[in-house]
Design a protein that fits this description.
The structure is a homotetramer. The first copy, chain A, is built from seven helices and 18 strands. By secondary structure, chain A is an alpha+beta fold. In chain A, strand 1 and strand 2 form a beta hairpin. At the C-D interface, strand 1, helix 2, helix 5, strand 11 and helix 6 of C face strand 1, helix 2, helix 5, strand 11 and helix 6 of D.
Chain lengths: 363, 363, 363, 363
């Protein structure tokens, strides 16, 4: 029950700080016999990596992953897979002046209240850098899910500030630095981000993450429901303030006759539920929307306190993303993969199968 | 790691089905020495109980709780507290005709896909009735939180269908069957519900739940963050499709200079964050909004399948709430109480304290 | 991770006190579709029940179990199985005089030190009565193990005080109140117990528990080894002070050339290991020996303290077993069943199978 | 609930294989603010390290530990402490010939049955080398236990084969390579080991481990008892086949009037219980005895099977300890430290204190 672990059977334990020697994770419970090479993991890390465009932090990290254990002759052995990523580019001097201040909307104050001390270098453990081990572990899970169950997971930027990013073509997502599923809005997004950056400000975003090919039967009736586990994983990501499944908040304004997805022999006629009914997957695509708050690090001076309780003005000068949502897509995919993998193993444990595939057209 | 349990240290294990002999829960890890009588629990159960107005299911249940263990001479002993609620009013005949059909938007299909069989009587374990043990356990948690830490928790209906329910006076919440924090809109809500009921339809809702007096320091940096644990608890409640912390989904459209809550010696100037920063409580009020889908049980016939895969038309004739959101307030409060209690004990375990109280005016 | 639960996937949560309203447990994670009736559980409870001979406590309890949930039409549904046993015969007056004293070798002092208060009625939660829910849950596990994997589990008395109880015929175990696997020593055991009882004293015992038909592959390499899990379960039973696997303590005097069990195509030639190698089952029979201390409740006055720290003389007048080991056999079987069931589900989760059966003659 | 983790609150997750790139662990839940340097950990690792005498494996490993996270300015931050030990001296060629055979009494067969494949290099994950991360984590726990609670833990060799190793002076333990608490028997032990080594054989051992200064109140009533948790930890150590608390197996032959430890204002008069009553620490010293089987790696040819099921003769030529018990003392100490630390944090969580110290003379 480590508080730094996620999963009950496919258990990922995360460690590290932004400017410590290394970050990484240990994966326990991976099924044996799956082919796994560091490239399988590295390719996902590279999708998340900073420095890939001028709109994300310019910190340069190769994020090269080393597999320390759990692999023999190219296959998983069923023993813990430890993954190590060395920190290379720790410009601690950037953070010196705020080491004893609580930057507004940052984790500084909470850590200090909780632990009585904190590692201020680069945000310490609160840094978005700690999502890299999550992505690395997620790469293992999604490989297994794809090979064993044919599950695919994808995410895209759905909103940048007040601009809705239209879904035009999923194939575009990996062709631009915004994970936008269209090419036509890229100039508009660039222009918006440039204005935000020049203003020394930051901006929020929304993302959509989907899982296709999930069999019906994953999840549990009470408490450890699949939607609960998904919400746990996604709300646990830095900056996420909202998690919606299927129609999400808009269900409040719906009638039951509209919201209830009818089933026919061709499949569900709609997917208002977003693939989860009664806490259990329905075999319809799992559809989730999350909102990500704007990066709290802004150049505009803000009122706060320091550790002595004195009022100070804080402006953050370090390297930061103007929009943390821009790099969130691979992380969301990883978190969904970890959650589904765990649910699939729980199902296999209790029921000896993966549930049922409802062979319907996807909606 | 029971999938029917919630909490790591204050662990509640839920059991029962709607029309089985009984429902209940076992609470492990309760601090010893707290005065606890069945009335403390009963009063919360009575707030949740069906049959209290014509707009909720007319099933009559006294929901009388019996404490089976863990209390001696009126005090908690530190050993498991088992709570038992007998089912009294099981009109199984109501459900006979849909026993082998999958009611749209219900848990029927998922349970069948998962387990290969299901208890169809009254929805079995998927019934909202299973929230009663959660409310009972929550009553224990909120008593401890109030006495030990001065924490108070409250919830209210914030939207019914397209009608926003205004916050006028929290004291009104317990004076009407809608948990609405105003008296003036009650006729409007009654009228809306009546029309929904007459149409044989149902309607969604939004609720707000808040916790006040939470010290700064509860929660954890990565994965087991306080917002993650809250989202897990609340998204795990029947019919909830959206969980938002603080400004929730609207952060997507905000700038960092607007979203970041400034701190002064008088406290936080705003509370966009909803009381959680970096996964850890900030001492500002915890503010959460959830959306609840309309009850899937409607009289209007809907297309579905039966267990043989044949297409059928389903309309639900049993006793049902036209809006499950109407009775959700006490349940949301209970789930927040359970989550905060667990976080407080985790904090006491690791750090020997409850964090810091930031003695500011509430926002 | 309730501290009153055992198991990671087949999770049993125990509740109750000797003289409270009821005792029982909740089983989470049981595979669905298994036929289960209360008689399946009752027959194991009856084997454990007090009052079956003059050598065990004369407390009369029917120990009638009620299944509260998790069964529909005679089959497990995969949802929590709650089992309830009402306490009937609580002669609390027997214990009044020691309510504020710490009986030597009892749990009294520890509970008081831990919780700051305790339920003294009949030993409260420290009573051997709390093993009944364990036996009940174990009955479910052993049924599944027998049907799914052909595993059988049996236990016998192996020593009573200084008398070694010879293994002559396993069939005798259920024909005498001592769980002795021979008929010839019964008069000797009766005579010994009678002398102990007349002296107002009590006596220790040793028991052997075995599991046959366990496939190779259950358990884990580091920490959660099968032998570790077995030791956890058995050392967690009241009065047990020693757990030995296979040759146990006598391995200290062995050479490697003697201790190592050779394998041939006909099977293992010996079973010094007791069926566990490297933390994982080997498919040879699992052999365990436990030692049980004499009941601490004796008529002979003993020095102790009361809650005020004053020295007192304590002699226990209530109804007690002169040898708790006499009724331990069904409990040990249950604990082994719970452990193996959990290991089998963990194996199925990670590897999709139950390991390998090494089709050898049993040793 | 990783199966490679130990502890509920002070959670240690172990990873690595004997001949992989590295071994190590992640510690979650460490209290913040404790001074911790790598030397604190290294000194315990050095006590366990191979190559320190001619009677232990001649594999040369510096076992240099690197702290990867969780420390800032010399203090624990409360975030996960990741510890890394690189493998340096992997002579994989030693093991090539047994790569597809099941060495008798080794973990080979079980791993193969479980996972369907195995890493045969140096025993892979079954190697005693994997105890190094346990010792490293234990060093953190024992530092905290000593500083916060004044608890001290020590272990010694109590038997080598048929030779009982007398307790004469605890101070001798760190002055000889056998962890023997006397100087006079060293020549005898050397001579015995030399004869075993020359015979190409190995030999078993017994060790005693003790904890002093443990307050009364650690542990739990049912299942997660302190003795259960200790047995879990110690039986989970490679080669351990027996765990006894206090008088252990000899309680079987005792009477209650003898076994029950009397309490006076000067303390317990005896300590038959070994410091645990009713699953909870009594404040008397915790006394545990374990038996360790002889190393299965012997030069004497032994019958076994290979992966094809063919009968083969196996003799192990690699570098091995003739007695794994010789280096077990620091590991046992570490495991007891981890268990007590976890119990202390659980107690602090539930009860807000560490129980009571019974200020008596040690027995």
């Amino acid at each position: 029950m480590s508080t730094s672990s996620i999963g009950k059977l496919f258990v990922v334990t995360n460690f590290g700080e932004s400017h410590g020697p290394a970050i990484g994770c240990v994966i326990d419970g991976c099924p044996p016999g799956m082919e796994l090479a560091s490239e399988d993991i590295q390719k996902e890390l590279d999708r998340r990596r900073p420095g890939s465009s001028r709109f994300v932090t310019q910190r340069k990290e190769s994020d090269a992953v080393e597999i320390l254990s759990g692999i023999y002759e190219g296959k998983t052995t069923g023993t813990p897979i430890a993954l190590l990523i060395r920190n290379e580019n720790q410009r601690s001097r950037d953070y010196g002046e705020v080491a004893h201040q609580f930057r507004p909307a940052h984790a500084d104050w909470g850590y200090w209240a909780k632990f009585g001390l904190r590692d201020p270098r680069g945000g310490g453990r609160a840094s978005a850098r700690l999502t890299a081990p999550t992505v690395a572990a997620g790469a293992v899970a999604r490989k297994w899910l794809a090979e064993e169950l044919g599950i695919s997971i994808r995410a895209r930027l759905a909103r940048l500030g007040s601009v809705e990013v239209r879904l035009e073509d999923w194939a575009e997502v990996d062709r631009n630095p915004f994970f936008a599923a269209n090419a036509s809005q890229i100039p508009e997004l660039e222009s918006l981000l440039e204005s935000v950056r020049k203003a020394g400000d930051s901006i929020g975003a929304e993302l959509v993450v989907e899982a296709h090919g999930v069999p019906a039967g994953l999840g549990n009736p009470v408490y450890h429901r699949l939607d609960a586990a998904l919400a746990y994983a996604l709300m646990g990501l830095n900056a996420v303030k909202s998690v919606e499944i299927g129609d999400g908040a808009s269900v409040a304004a719906q009638r039951g006759s509209e919201n209830g997805d009818e089933m026919t022999q061709e499949g569900f006629l709609t997917n208002h539920a977003g693939g989860v009914l009664g806490g259990i997957s329905s075999s319809a695509p799992i559809l989730i929307r999350v909102a990500v708050k704007p990066t709290p690090s802004v150049l505009i001076p803000r009122k706060s306190l320091n550790e002595q309780g004195e009022e100070v003005l804080v402006s953050t000068k370090g390297r930061h993303d103007p929009c943390v949502g821009l790099r969130a897509a691979p992380i969301l995919e990883a978190l969904v993969a970890l959650t589904l993998m765990d649910a699939a193993l729980l199902q296999r444990a209790q029921c000896g199968n993966y549930g049922l595939v409802f062979d319907a057209q996807e909606i």
